[in-house]
């Protein structure tokens, strides 16, 4: 009898090695839970105070001043540490408090450490302080669904990804009824303060709640969260108060590491272009950081397309003494041509593979798509406002939606004043692939935003790329380069003189390491014609097998694999940077609460300079708000920060685009950023975009 058969299943399961192998708690998890992030210097003192400063100024929107009078004149508050304070201040700081915290919107790595920082600071100030977590996002506030945060709960989730501890949701507290229910919840729990961890819309929500609850003595503090990196705060003079929201670094590192793996595969198998769509809503911050981290061959940055001018169109129009307004702004077709240009260049160097990175929101920077989105947003919002039924419920199928748009186009014929959707719009829209039409007509999110993640951007673009590459192939302009040495060896092995056949087959036989067949050679038939013209074969002769084999290797077969990077990165366990950042955001949130602040966003200044220079502060939310169209109406919101095309990080990226395209002899320039290690040596201190942009601060 074998040893295995002599053991019962229970004996196997009771074995320590087996128990360790299948335990839910891994070695890495134990390390993460044990790690205590360092706190900024100000938090080493017994107390913290707020020092109001007029150094940072904001232009105030009149509508924000009208709707948020109680908090619109808040100033930036610098958190300062104090070993001793007057007794009255100490009593206020250490008084017993009940604090609520809620996650709003999609997860971002590090959220649990915001809770940990808030909890640790609250218990340090007064062990009788209580912290309540609202379950499943803002609905938990509205419905009074809570869990009390305990030391055991905090320790179980320290430094871990996700918002698993209390979950999250996308509801908005955006009506009088919801605000009244939220007020009732806060009063029932005896809350002194509510901390809202979320993105631009959630922090906008925090400002309105701060205004509504000011008379109730309930403070509201926001915490900037989004992997998209589009919550960045500068004052009117360009002083950076919040360089990036938490979760961005982790998501970018996770995406970059996965894309690095694809680069290894692509350069090994040499037959696929991996097309990687990267999350980020409208802004391209993640795509830029991923490009700096992993050096893909082609990366599109949406913001770089805004001021595009087609010089060829302008030149042609000038010769014809006319103005071509379509030359201004990027089109889908031209964007696909830019991608094709890189693919053709790489093919010429014998590389029929590569990595292409496309930001999720790139379509918003493409003229005709942006117009469609704006018009359709207005049509959907207008329908919802004037009918009892929701647009998507009223027209559940694509066919029914198209029929409704057709009726609008017909209306434009009969009513010259109606310009929202005309026959030209209809014709252009009908030219789009069906799946793209469905995407543009997809249901908007709870904030009225177009959901770019639901659009197969990569399929739209790569469909155009495929079509144009086929045209270039037929024109003889898209070919694979053949190494000169390989050609010579193959010909000599077949007993043929490469010096006789080379000039007849290749247009650059007298130069270059990679040989390109003549533009005229686009088929076996045209290959024969060139050989006959050169007198190398007669009309009845067969094309030498070696020459035919060489020709076949010059014909590219464009194959793609599509990937979307989003949910995996936002659920990743946080980097050391995000662990430390979020823990200090939690400490900052408590300092703002303990000093009576409301309507402020907890933030850390100088993130781009490294931990020793970090400066906790509170940023007034109301002055950041301006009117923007949402669901067909103007509403006060915090403006999303787009990639600054003049930033140092962007300049560095653009300076390396040609090198990373690697359309030349030799290896590609792929960078291996490595996984999020957290423990051990080698973990980078902060995002590369921040490191590069810090050069301005370090030299000024």
Query: What is the typical, i.e. mean, pLDDT?
Result: 93
Distance between the termini: 79 Å
Structural class: alpha/beta
Q: Please report the first level of CATH classification, the CATH class of the largest domain.
A: Alpha Beta
Q: Rg from C-alpha positions?
A: 30 Å
Low-confidence stretches: none
Could you please say which CATH topology of the largest domain applies here? Rossmann fold
Percent helix, as a range, is 40-55%
Number of domains: 3
- How many strands, which pairing sense, and closed or not: the largest β-sheet? 9 strands, mixed
* CATH architecture annotation of the largest domain: 3-Layer(aba) Sandwich
CATH homology-level superfamily of the largest domain: Phosphofructokinase domain
The proportion of strand residues reads 5-15%
- How many helical elements? 29
Backbone shape: globular
3D structure, described in words:
- The protein contains 29 helices and 19 strands.
- With 700 residues, it is an alpha/beta fold.
- It has a nine-stranded mixed beta sheet, sandwiched between helices.
- Strand 8 (233-234) and strand 9 form a beta hairpin.
- Helix 12 packs across helix 13 (285-294) and helix 28 (648-661) crosses helix 29 (688-699).
- The model has no long low-confidence stretch (mean pLDDT 93).
List the helices and strands and how they pair.
Elements: H1 3-6, H2 9-13, H3 16-22, H4 27-34, E1 47-53, H5 62-67, E2 76-82, H6 87-94, E3 98-103, H7 111-125, E4 130-134, H8 138-143, E5 146-149, H9 151-157, H10 176-188, E6 193-198, H11 200-213, E7 219-224, E8 233-234, E9 240-242, H12 248-269, E10 273-278, H13 285-294, E11 298-299, H14 311-319, H15 332-348, E12 354-359, H16 367-386, H17 391-394, H18 398-414, H19 423-430, H20 434-440, H21 457-474, E13 482-483, H22 484-493, H23 498-505, E14 514-515, H24 524-533, H25 545-554, E15 560-565, H26 567-570, H27 576-594, E16 600-605, E17 615-620, E18 625-630, E19 633-638, H28 648-661, H29 688-699
Parallel strand pairs: 3-4, 3-6, 6-7, 7-16, 10-12, 10-15, 11-12
Antiparallel strand pairs: 1-2, 2-17, 4-5, 8-9, 13-14, 16-17, 18-19
Helix pairs in contact: 7-9, 7-27, 12-13, 15-21, 18-19, 28-29
